Amino acid sequence: MKRIVLVVRLVLALLACTLGLVSQEAAPTHAPDGRAPQLIMPITFPPRPGAPFMAIARMVSVQILPDGSTVTRHSERAVARDNDGRIFEERREFMPGSGPEVSRVWAVDYMDPQAHTQHRCYPMSNYCEIYDYYFGMPRMMPAGLQADKTTYLTRELFGTETVAGLEALHSRETFTLYMESVGNSRTILRIVDYWYSPELGINVQVKRHDPRDGDQTLWLTDLTQSAPDPATFNLPEGYRMVDLTHTGAVPGPVITRWRPPARTPTQAPPQ
To answer: HSE-up of 110 (CA within 13 Å, CB side)?
Structure first.
């Protein structure tokens, strides 16, 4: 009988210790925190009618760390444009290293310049968000000292080269950020080389060097000037559609219309 009592006491003591450890581990030691992801601007494809193409857009990013070591990431994704100027773009996750692994698709964009809509569809969640789509070519920044008086732009032209089977104009922009223009203790040089195809109206290759971001190389491969299969622009079936346009009047089977949450008079307006 005494042995049973001792065993029971021992079990209860061990259980109490375990519960104590669990409660200690469950107690928070700090507030939520995180790390902002590095965003890399992809090659832009304007909606030019009559200039169709299909290609694989590739990117390699080499980030240089303070100790001289590097972090390399890469991605590749399918892109296309038809004769009407509609654009199809995959969005894939970055993979470590420089290849050849292909990451999963996290989103697919369908841009229609005639309907002025962009559908961004998420294969992992089976839903699409619908946005207004209006594309305007940005004005080129003039060379020389900028209006802020702390940055200077130099532009160089190197002539025509053949890239991805197309004639491309090679140019370079050197953007000088003088000391303290962005909180920097030394002058920063951001250098970007462009290979631009006048025929397609797109950059077929871009090389960026910026000490804040490292080296980024973006280029197109497997490029053909054939129109993609019209089925490329068919929206996936069975997806829930979430209308985020300014009118909420997108034709088709839109199921959800996003609206801002209602506020009571006691609530302060959002900042």
So the answer is: 14
Q: What are phi and psi of 11, to 5 degrees?
A: -65, -45
- Containing domain of residue 56, as a range? 52-136+229-260
Using only C-alpha atoms, the chain has a radius of gyration, in whole angstroms, of 27
User: Do 68 and 201 lie in a common domain?
Assistant: no
Residues 131 and 235 grouped into a single domain: yes
195 - beta bridge partners?
170, 205
Residues 205 and 242 in one domain: no
Q: What pTM was estimated for this model as a whole?
A: 0.80
pLDDT digits (tens, 9 = 90+) for 42-63: 999 999 999 999 999 999 999 9
Which amino acid appears at position 43 of this protein? Answer: I
Decide: 103 and 91 in contact? Cβ < 8 Å. no
Torsion 34-35-40-41 (CA) sign: positive
* Residue 155 and residue 183 in one domain: yes
Mean pLDDT in residue range 62-86: 95
Task: Judge if 167 and 58 occupy the same domain.
Answer: no
For tokens 């609206």, the residue is: 259
The Cα angle at residue 247 between residues 89 and 265, in degrees rounded to 5: 120
